[in-house]
Specification:
By secondary structure, this protein is of the alpha+beta class. It contains nine helices and 24 strands. The longest helix is centred in the last third of the chain and has 21 residues.
Length: 511
């Protein structure tokens, strides 16, 4: 039924910034794999790049790039090594040699917060400023996938398949460099069963079980969006109407999950009162409903055994919905009590005018952060120690404790990409045009936590204090050190408290 999930994330890095250079001016970036660059035409985002990056035999093919290559074992994009990045930095225009750019700015910011170099004159340093950096800039999802989910936005959208391939690349590069690996996963989706994070969550869990690997996920920014609904308990034979306010003709996808062995069926009532009739709840059942007055098409698809948990899953896709109140009537077809959860897409994929009228801010952690074997963080304001109103909340759909803890994520200071296409020539100009600013959000908290995880891996693996460290062990270290003052733990907002790396070692000392 669901061929791929869709995600929104920052992408790319401005590798020219001082925040990613070492003390002698060389790049700390091990490699960049830019999936968006076509190695046959060297086009990124539709702009033809300089022919200086083409080998003599490459103008009609992909085999002989002067700079960069398709990474070994992969079929698309271009990889640039540390040596090529340093050569680019020594040139008058680095982007002619390594044309990978960060046009969004968020990727640069997250990398800087996690592991940016100490810049004293800017009063800046990342959490782990001596780490080696490896970057994957994911290509955006194809139009067909976006159309299937009715995603019509300028926000970047990424396919699960490309993310899985990016994770494989990072694992290979860590093995090649013989280094521990921390993956900062600053993206997420509200589509999925909200238990294990689906296929992506399970792949990440498997990778995270390897010694020397830590995977940190952002919880999301969905608590205050009214995009989650949780029902009361339905008695056998009872039904309930779930109201959705549609404020535009922007299509959307709605997902319903119940707990096995419950079986629920649904029907749709349009704003004008047209009724679809009850659909049949059976595995693989599909139905298309045309609402004449609204000029709207609704597709309903059932899966009684979803991949993630074996629970019932119903996907409802609204194409060109008219404005007004749409009602989804849900029927309990089982002999006992039943209940269910529904989710709409994340805020980046849907106008704010479409939402549940009776929404629940809980169980809004984005997938795959709800996988119990991954490190998951919510975010708060470190100045007044208050949780962010938008910070997604736990627990998981089956009641597992998530998030693990909260990390700072409001008005965090970090590097921003350079503006324009003209690269500064003098060192003074390079430093002056290196911008810094403040950003907020779940991915920022994930970056801070990823930096803390890197420091723990250095202590455990490289300094041989705990050579068996993996994601779960690091997760437990950080939970043990979490500051729970003023927090009833564990809870849906704060998890087990707030990130405190110093207290991890205090607790190890028995203090």
């Amino acid at each position: 039924m669901k061929y791929s999930n869709i995600y929104r994330t920052p992408a790319g890095i401005d590798y020219t910034l001082p925040a990613f250079l070492d003390s002698i001016g060389d790049s700390r970036i091990y490699s960049i794999w830019d999936q968006t660059i076509n190695p046959c035409t060297l086009q990124e985002n539709g702009n033809e790049e300089s022919e200086t990056n083409l080998g003599n035999n490459n103008k009609n093919g992909c085999a002989n790039l002067k700079y960069g290559r398709i990474p070994e074992g992969f079929a698309y994009g271009v990889e640039y090594t540390n040596e090529e990045i340093n050569e680019a930095l020594a040139s008058d225009n680095p982007w002619n040699i390594v044309p990978s750019r960060d046009f969004n700015g968020h990727g640069t910011f997250i990398a800087g917060v996690a592991c940016g170099t100490l810049i004293e004159e800017k009063n800046f340093a990342g959490v782990a400023p001596l780490t080696t950096i490896c970057v994957v800039k994911c290509k955006e999802a194809k139009k067909g996938l976006k159309s299937f989910y009715h995603i019509d936005t300028d926000e970047p959208v990424y396919a699960e398949t490309d993310i899985l391939i990016a994770i494989k690349y990072l694992r290979q590069k860590a093995a090649e460099a013989n280094m521990p690996l921390v993956i900062c996963f600053g993206m997420g989706t509200s589509l999925g069963g909200h238990i294990t994070g689906g296929i992506l969550g399970e792949v990440m869990r498997t990778l995270g079980n390897n010694t020397g690997v830590a995977i940190v996920t952002a919880g999301g920014n969905e608590a205050n969006t009214s995009r989650h609904y949780k029902s009361d308990v339905l008695a056998a034979g009872q039904d309930i109407e779930v109201e959705i306010r549609s404020g535009s003709r922007h299509g959307f996808t709605l997902e319903l999950y119940s707990d096995s062995p419950q079986i629920l069926s649904v029907s749709i009532i349009s704003p004008s009162g047209e009724y679809s009739g009850k659909t049949v709840a059976r595995h693989g059942e599909k139905r298309r409903i045309n609402f004449i007055f609204e000029d709207t098409v609704v597709d309903i698809e059932y899966s009684l055994l979803s991949y993630e948990s074996g629970d019932e899953f119903v996907q409802i896709r609204f194409d060109n919905p008219s404005e007004g109140i749409w009602k989804v009537r849900v029927f309990n077809e089982t002999k006992g009590n039943a209940y269910f959860n529904m989710w709409l897409p994340i805020r980046n994929f849907l106008p704010s005018t479409t939402y549940f009228l009776e929404a629940d801010p809980n169980i809004t952690l984005c997938c795959p952060s709800n996988n119990t074997n991954l490190i998951s963080v919510s975010y708060y304001n470190s100045l007044n120690r208050s949780i962010a109103v938008d910070s997604s909340r736990g627990f998981t759909r089956n009641g597992n404790i998530k998030p693990d803890f909260a990390a700072p994520g409001i008005n965090v200071y970090g590097p921003l990409p350079r503006i324009g296409n003209v690269y500064p020539l003098t060192e003074e100009e390079k430093n002056l045009t290196a911008r810094y600013g403040f950003q907020s959000g779940s991915s920022i908290a994930a970056a801070i936590t990823a930096g803390a995880a890197a420091l723990l891996l250095e202590w455990g693996i490289l300094r041989e204090n705990n050579t068996s460290m993996d994601t779960v062990i690091i997760q437990k270290y950080l939970i043990r050190g979490a500051d729970s003052d003023g927090v009833t733990e564990p809870n849906r907002l704060w998890g087990n408290g707030t990130l405190n790396l110093y207290d991890v070692f205090e607790r190890l000392r028995g203090n």
